[in-house]
Amino acid sequence: MRMIFGLVLVVGMMLAGAAVFMAKNFIGQQQSAAQREKQLMADTGGLTMVFVVNKAKDYGDPLTKDDVQRIYWPKNALPEGAFEDGELLFPKDAKDPRYVVRQMEKFEPILAVKVTAPGEQAGLNGAIEKGMRAFAIKVDAADFLQPGDRVDIYWTGSSGASGSEITQRIETAVKIIAVDRNAKSTVAAGEIQSRTMTVAATPEQVGRLAQAQATGRLVMSLVGNDSTAASDPTEIKVTTTDINGDKIAAPEAAAPAPEACYVTVRQGGVPTQVPIACTN
């Protein structure tokens, strides 16, 4: 009897120890999970639900409810103008859809600046500042240029004075507001190609660009984010001579005319000059 009692006591103590160990592990896991969640809240500010596109959308595409979905997004990294409320993105009283004004990739948040108001057509009016004009020019430009970039525009044509070709920067830090949508599958990355791009320009700039387009070729060069690039006053003009060092041969000087000597002879009272050999 005593042996049975002792055996039961030992088994009970083993079970109690196991229960204490399991409870301790469980409490430790719960504390670690709570600490991780607390750290995540501190890093992200919490999570919120935002609307994203579920497939790539191009400029001018309509935006419908089938094109969007909601995902969790960190509040600390929430872009300005993101839609968290479906009633704001798709108002009940809106009869027409929104349209995309900036290209969006799959799972990219929908921002107010990337779509029009409900029923408003996608166009360039919203991209043009007061006093500016939209002007489309055909240029040789790399595929990496996108709306919103600023570019210098270079003109290559014949010089009226010498007839030789020159390249000259005619506009600085002009903003691109639209790019034609050629199929990229046939274009290598960074390849220079002929494209039509629309820029925002003053009426005076439009006049210069129109004249330059009619008399030569235009090329765009991307301007960096350096704030001084937009106000660079340096005049850039390059000729063929600047590139290969060729010089235009000066015309040879004409050989001096041989010296002539004369003697005056009077015949019948009329003076006449007769050439003779010159002597020193």
UniProtKB/TrEMBL annotation:
It comes from Cypionkella sinensis. It holds the Pfam family RcpC. The gene is cpaB. Residues 124-222 form the Flp pilus assembly protein RcpC/CpaB domain. This is Flp pilus assembly protein CpaB.
